[in-house]
Records
---
Amino acid sequence: MFDLLAMTLSGDVVTEPAGQTEMLDWQWRGEGILELSPRQPCEAAVVISAGIHGNETAPIELLNQLVSELLSGERQLRVRLLVLLGNPPSMCINKRFVEADMNRMFGGRHARYTPNDESRRAQELEQVMALFYRSATAAGTTQRYHYDLHTAIRGSKHVRFGLLPLQARPKSEAMLAWLNAAGLDALVHHRSPGGTFTHFSSDVFQADSCTLELGKALPFGSNDHAQFTGIRRALETLVSDEPLPVREAPAPLVHYCVVQDVIRSREDFELFVPADALNFTAFSKGFVIAQETGKTYKVEADEEVVLFPNPNVALGLRAGLMLVKM
Ligand SMILES: O=C(O)CCC(=O)N[C@@H](CCC(=O)O)C(=O)O
Ligand SMILES: [Zn+2]
């Protein structure tokens, strides 16, 4: 069985960088980067990435399984597909990153860093994505999708959720229907641009892009994949161009928009969100979320919920998001 994850983690030089099965052609485009093309014409160019943060293993395992099914012929490929395992060195050490958070570097922001493995990788992923979408368009595809799979550091009141990058054009109905069918519990709408991979793909290539969060980060082999059946099923229908699955979720999808990006810009930054607070915990108007010299972040709406609170980020990066229900 073809094991993309094992090949990527081994770091072995790939001696046969291209091949074919009865139904598709594949090309190894670089470490952890695999392109799959069906023989018949198709409409969609799909990028699925995971492991942009190396310790977020559930989606890496899920994506690896999907690739194996496509290559074994168990599952039909009816889109052009680029699969990316984002940060192999950090996957090897089960850490979010080695030197710096790669999901803040896209859209050329990598050039602002003293060159390191992550800044070089972010640039490589941008180039590979550009080449992929361009060649897929030349081959006749008309739709572009990008799903970037993550898991959260903390537990969350909504276990499965998505983050939609800011974009001027309306969100695609097809993507919103897919996200709903995938059984997500919540969708978060960004209101400012960022250095995330999905902001880059949406902004530069007009892809229908979404960051998907699948539970809490755990080591390889410790994930409860039963929690992600809906997302797995939705990804299967996406790559096989099948009808959407029926949504299975305890409650309707809740939409939030970001009202505050909490940025740590000074050494004396302090975050007042309790260490054990789950993502989507609500705080009332007036609560001081964070403080640093010259800046206090307070809850301004009657109620705001917190997402990704993390005081340990590098200076200049986001230490949390505050959201309100839409
Ligand atoms: O749990 C956390 O603090 C972070 C989980 C994670 O990596 N989330 C992504 C979200 C990207 C987006 O906003 O689209 C990230 O922070 O990079
Ligand atoms: Zn992540």
---
Amino acid sequence: MGEAGGVTLDADLRLDRPGGFRLDLRLRVAPGEVVTLLGPNGAGKSTTLRAIAGLAPLTGGRISMSSQDWDVPPRRFTPPRDRGVGVVFQEYRLFPHMSVRENVAFGLRARGVDRHAARRRADEWLDVVGLRDHSGHRPHRLSGGQAQRAALARALATTPEVLLLDEPLAALDVSTRARVRAELSRHLARFGGATLLVSHDPLDAMTLADRLVIVEDGREVQSGTPVEVATRPRTDYVARLVGLNLLGGNATGDSVDLAGGGRLVPADPVRGPVWLAFPPSAVVLHATEPHGSARNHWPVTVTGIEQHGNTVRLHLEGRPTVLADVTPAAVAELRLAPGTALWAAVKATEIRAYPAEPGEGGMAGGAG
Ligand SMILES: Nc1ncnc2c1ncn2[C@@H]1O[C@H](COP(=O)(O)OP(=O)(O)OP(=O)(O)O)[C@@H](O)[C@H]1O
């Protein structure tokens, strides 16, 4: 189900909004690839999704799916219902007066699938997302995580070539978010089409994306794998936003053996393959080996120093290699320079740990 392989989304998006905003963005998303658009408020992320869905016509450029043109102004415009696009909107926008099953069947019915077949397909998708028991319920009876799954099932039921997700986890509370993120990641891995996801949460972006495209003021400022972008930020916004140490490893007992070497202990109990994430600001530096309660400390060497606004970002090589944000005062106090040997420490409570899917080890090693 949901296989749509072989089709690449190729978009050269030019869109002028009244009021002066201009989108000018080139995007290619391969089948099976998850691209996350990351950017500040007003950067043009939602406009990008709306343009691809056919909800905001381009003023220039082109949107093509393989050989088929969807939008080539002023020559051609394919209306939304004729594009192979599934959309999961922010807040999910489930129809409140319909049952969960009717919601999932809606896109199929709109495309002319008969009632019986649409219900059957909807039920199959509700099985996939684990909501079969809720198929007769109205959406208001669903939890946030369940509503997210229903919206995903609704989008995938039409077998789209392109899946668009606008802040798919933003409506969830922190405790549900990690679980739903892992579920979503699993569903996206199975989806054979092109996925374009919008987020301004670095953790969602880093963990769900194969590739990040950072957008500021309607333009791409940087793109690359999450690790590439995190380790080599090219703007202050990117540095602040995606500045996240992300380390893959395997949990045994209460500690995690990191794929790139070294060992860390998160506060949360974990088992098996995991990701550990913590911001560079959580890394504390010591001139000599710290004693006391800090379980996570290890020797590092400064290999890079970059000023970003009021903070200084350090590249610290060790086991693990991490990024640390410190104040200019700390740089002076510790006499930091490339080659300086130090001790890095991170509190267990600063480390977010969450299960990794088997085979995700490609990103392991994190900031390196
Ligand atoms: N219908 C519209 N008409 C005119 N201008 C619009 C319209 N929709 C959005 N804009 C403008 O286009 C720009 C990009 O908005 P967009 O919603 O795409 O940004 P975004 O990156 O999704 O931001 P956010 O993270 O806040 O959702 C903004 O300056 C916005 O004010």
